[in-house]
Amino acid sequence: MQEPRKQSLLARLPVVHQLRQSVGLQRGMLIAGLIITAVYVISAVFAQWIAPYGFAQLRNASGPFGSQQPPSPSHIWGTTVGGYDVFSRVIWGAQTALEVMVVAIILSIFIGVFLGLMSGYLGGWLDRILVVIADAIYAFPSLLLAIVMSIVISGGQSSLWGGIFAAAISITVVYIPQYFRVIRSEAVRIKNEAFVESAMVIGASTPRIMFRHVLRNSTRTLPLIFTLNASEAVLTLAGLGFLGFGIEPTAAAEWGYDLNKSLSDVTSGIWWTAIFPGLAIVLSVLGVTLVGESLNDLADPRLRGRRAVAAAPVAAASDSEPVDVAPVAAKSGDSQ
After folding, report:
1. Residue 322 region, left (φ>0) first, then alpha (ψ -120 to 50), else beta?
2. Cβ distance 257 to 7 under 8 Å?
3. Positions in the chain whose pLDDT score sits under 70
C-alpha cells in the first residue's frame, strides 16, 4: 500500500491550504479577495513612499495646491475643498485604517478569548454574569456603541495615536462579545471530552488544563471571525469619521472624514473628492469580506463533501485504464 505524500510547509499554511482546496467560482472569489486585500495592505504599509504628498500638506515648492482642483498630472485625483491632495489622503487613509483594524482585532481577540475561556470552563456564577454582560453589549447597535465609547474615551477630539487607540478601543468593545461567545461555546463542549478528564485525573492544574488543552482546541474558527470582523472594523472607523467622532484630520487621514467633507461637492459636479475615498472603503471591505466568506465556506465539511462527490467520477474516469472488450466477447462466444 502506497503511503500518502506529506505536504510541504508552504502547502500547509492556512490561506495556501484553503486556496489549494478551492475550486471554480469559490477559488476565483478567494483569489480576487486576496489580490484586493494585498493591494490594500501594501498601500498602507508603504504609504510614505507611494503617496506623493503628506496627508496634511497644502503646498509644495510651486505654491499652494488650490481648492477643488480637478485631476491633473500634479494631482492625479484632484484636490479636496480643504486643498489636500486626494490621492495622498486615500493612501494615508489606508494606513490609518490598517492600524486601527489591527489594534482593535488584537485587543478583541485577547480580551474576548480570555473571558470566554474563563466563562465556559469555570461556569457557575461567573459564567452567568459574563453571559448577561456580553448579551447586553451585543444587543446595542455597533456604530452607536462605538460613538458612545469614542466620546467617553477621547471626547471626539484626539491626536494621532490617541485617536487610533480611541477608535480601536471603541471597536474592541463592539467585537469582544463575538469572540466571547465562540470561545465559550467551544470551551463548554471541550471540557467534557475524555482528554480533559484524563488531565484532571492525573492532577493537572486548572490553568494548565484551560490554556494547554481547552484553549488549543477552541481557536480553530478564530481566523474566520478575524477576517469578517476586519471588514466591519473598516466600516465602523469610516462611520465614526463620517459623523465627526474619528481621528482629527490634521493628525491622520481618514476616509470617513474625507467623505463627509465631500458631500457638498457632489451637488456641484465635483465628483473626484467623494468617489475615491468611497471606492477605497468599498474595495477594502470587499476584499477582506471575500477572503473571510471563502474561508468560511471552505471550513464547512458539507461543502467539501459535495465537491469531493462531484470530483470523484471525473477522477475515476481519468485514472481508470482502458479495458479490451474483444477478448471478453470472444470468451463469451466460445462458452456458448
Report:
1. beta
2. no
3. 1-24, 154-162, 221, 296-336
pLDDT of 204 reads 78
Q: Per this entry, what is the length of the chain?
A: 336
CA distance readout (Å), 262 to 11, 53, 80, 191? 46, 20, 7, 54
pLDDT tens-place string over residues 220-238: 767 777 777 788 888 888 8
Q: What is the pLDDT of residue 316?
A: 46
Other C-beta atoms within 10 Å of 222: how many?
A: 16
Overall pTM surpassing 0.90 (yes/no): no
Contact assessment for residue 93 and residue 292, using Cβ atoms and an 8 Å cutoff: no
CB neighbour burial string for 173-202, b if at least 16 within 10 angstroms, e if fewer: bbbbbbbbbbbbebbbebbeeeebeebeee
Q: Is 96 exposed, middle or buried (0-12, 13-18, 19+ CB in 10 A)?
A: buried
Q: 490554556: which residue's cell?
A: 211
What cell numbers appear for 239 in the block? 462611520
The CA distance from 289 to 55, in Å, is: 27
Q: What is the pLDDT of residues 62-114, one digit of tens each?
A: 888 888 888 888 889 988 888 889 999 999 999 999 988 888 888 888 888 88
